[in-house]
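Hi Prof. W.,

I finally got the Alpha-1,4 glucan phosphorylase prediction working! I wasn't sure whether to trim anything, so I left the full sequence exactly as given:
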Amino acid sequence: QLGLDMEELEEIEEDAGLGNGGLGRLAACFLDSMATLGLAAYGYGIRYEYGIFNQKIRDGWQVEEADDWLRHGNPWEKARPEYMLPVHFYGRVEHAATGAKWVDTQVVLALPYDTPVPGYMNNTVNTMRLWSARAPNDFNLRDFNVGDYIQAVLDRNLAENISRVLYPNDNFFEGKELRLKQEYFVVAATLQDIIRRFKASKFGSTDSVRTVFDSFPDQVAIQLNDTHPAMAIPELMRIFVDIEKLPWNKAWKITKQTFAYTNHTVLPEALERWPVDLVEKLLPRHLQIIYEINQRHLDHIASIFPNDVDRLRRMSLIEEGGTKRINMAHLCIVGSHAVNGVAKIHSEIVKTQVFQDFAALEPEKFQNKTNGITPRRWLLLCNPGLAELIAEKIGEDYVRDLSQLTKLHEFVDDDLFIREVAKVKQENKVKFALYLEKEYKVKINASSMFDVHVKRIHEYKRQLMNCLHIITMYNRIRRDPAKLFVPRTVIIGGKAAPGYHMAKMIIKLINAVAHVVNNDPVVGSKLKVIFLENYRVSLAEKVIPATDLSEQISTAGTEASGTGNMKFMLNGALTIGTMDGANVEMAEEAGEENLFIFGMRVEDVTELDREGYNAQKYYDQLPELKQAVDQIKSGFFSPKEPDLFKDVVNMLFHHDRFKVFADYEAYVKCQEKVSELYLNSKAWTKMVIRNIAAAGKFSSDRTIKEYARDIWHVEPSDLKIPPPNEPRDAVEDKTPNGTVA
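And this is what came out:
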């Protein structure tokens, strides 16, 4: 009636870019599933004033801009000043007869902002609570201040900087003091909030027999999303021992039963190892508690494995040698009752390689919980055409029970359904092609294969291998322009951490290659290359439904799970990928013959490491690889600066941990099979339907049900709560308030 277009309004809204990549997006999917499953769950985090940077491409280079996402306000959040809490830093520890006291601290206030998380059509609304840092009003004014009032007020920024900006590293640890402050800030505020809520509920009320906290692990489960909130373990111990005066052993038993830890990466450079001296300065009491945890932990191991000093060194929470560091993953394992990886293959690597000593000690502690995605956002919202087509065939219930997609197997030979699936994909491609033409001024052939590689830019994800394939296709077209070539639009997108030189060079290389390919008249509309600027959730929602081929080509054993892979599968793309992360389980569900699997398996990578990876060998034996690498090296793609990419080439030959050349030949051959199948539209679409029909396992609803039953010990409820405008029946009204799931 107002003459407004909903889609236009949706375009205006800013993404809440409060995470880096898979980890933050997984948390968002989990919140959606927990609400949909009727779990009484809270998501806690930091309300960053500036989220992940906006990426601009200028002259082929990534340039970062601040993400001022709150500029126009955020209508979904509600500040809750009545729940503001103090968080302490620095200071010193006093030991008295009554126990330890942390004194002379600096205080920062944590102001919570609540965002509603609605379940799907069940009248359940959960809460995401994000903390913002505020200086107390007497900040810098209380102590022996000579009267520079103006400077004291300006210095309030120092405290409030804690929630100013998201660190933009994905799969990389940067041991900065501000980052540690952020990690402790969210942990300290959240634990106070949880304990306040526990004490206010009927379970927290003191009765004469039991200590107040005996029922704590029955009422509270805390899942640590990677090691970033690991300080929650010593913090809860500090609260129990120093403030609530519980004996150590009782406090430790409760703490272990409360926490569970999810590991999200096996890359050594991503593991958090905080310098002891930094922790001692910022959180002196927590360091003492960590030392005590470690002492008891090592005493226990020594009692089982006497005289095995090397085992003690390997399993210690403290790493000696050079600067002493705290291994946060070890702290999480020791302080949790459950540890899980995020895909079968990853959980195996966690058990048998990364944390093998811990798994030998307590094998029952280690589990797998394969990641999933919410079908509400990643099908219904982003691909209504496909969602409706599926509903016509199998009904609407699949949205809350994605396993029902298997019913689509009955229609894999239904000619009408095959045509309709292909039609929806074509419509999505045309729509996205129009978007690309508007944004990039490139003419897109909407009947070409949309070959898409979108994720954070990282060497292990091997965007370089894709780049080498693009150059190989380009060279083949130029060598024989008359030969049949299956047209492709190759779309690569993703952000590089601002300090990651190699990742930024990879972006520049892709753009340099794109410039040559897209302006070569011999190539014409056969091959187009686009670097998708500022890849983010709202852009993923546009590109994924339009994709034909999903690139999931990490070196086997490096991608813990991946979730983009699942989104593409659910939206009717076929996957070219290695046997890594959740790709393994996707192949298991759909049948390996319905994915394009290539390259080394984990065992092959291990074997190649053992004998020593020699990149030169592949370069010498594969003429097309040699040609492509020589073009990069000689400045074919950077004529004004011939040695622009020397660092990239040098890395590929001399320190490529991810063995791009070793998988190049298998990758190119596999891509030929992809092109061959794409020529047969019907066979392609039948394979697409088989993939969609097998995607049910990868709902985050399934993942969360597994966490709930195996780790949190709560039962999901599919009861639809009556809406507030309907009177509840009299019996139900008598249910006591404050019941916790």
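The first strand starts at residue 42 and ends at 46. Does that look reasonable to you?

Thanks,
D.
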